[in-house]
Write the structure tokens for this entry.
Amino acid sequence: MPIVQISARIIRWPEVCACCCRPADTTILVTATRTKGKRVIQTESKSWHVPYCSNCLEHIKVVQELKQFSTAVGHGSSLIALCGLIVAIIIYTSLDDNETSLAKVMTGLVVLATIGLILMTYPYFQRIYEEEKATREAEKQNLEQRLHMYRCSNCATLDVLAVEYNGWYGTVHEFSFANEEFAKLFKNMNKGKCL
């Protein structure tokens, strides 16, 4: 990832996407923040508008959605089993030592009732589980198709922004570029300013 330091108050950006180098139609704000002071803390931020195309921003967004997406689905029978177990434990632990046989009988009844309830409701919960699982799988496939639609072979990065603003000191600013071609264009537009 090329790192470029530039000493300037005004920075010129190429009019192409920082990720794929196709014509840019939007921008993204990249920001760096620093704090100083021990007793009185002062925070200062600086930002730059980096050119992007809508497709690259969309594929970055879709990748982030895919990372957070889960196809895991809960089964209603598991919830019934958990509730039955909790009730059985509460009954068993709440009775005195003198009532041990009563506790065993009541606990056994709760376990049997739980098993019966699971057997009666299993087909219903299984149908709901399969429908929800199919829905989640379809949503994941839709996200993957969107990613394929927005991504092109020229993209420098898939899941993060192609330009990071690493910070500044005085008038010197530091940027990291994922796309080497874009970094070259950036240097050419700011000749004499890059260190």
User: Anything to note?
Assistant: The chain has two domains: 3-68+152-189, 76-150.
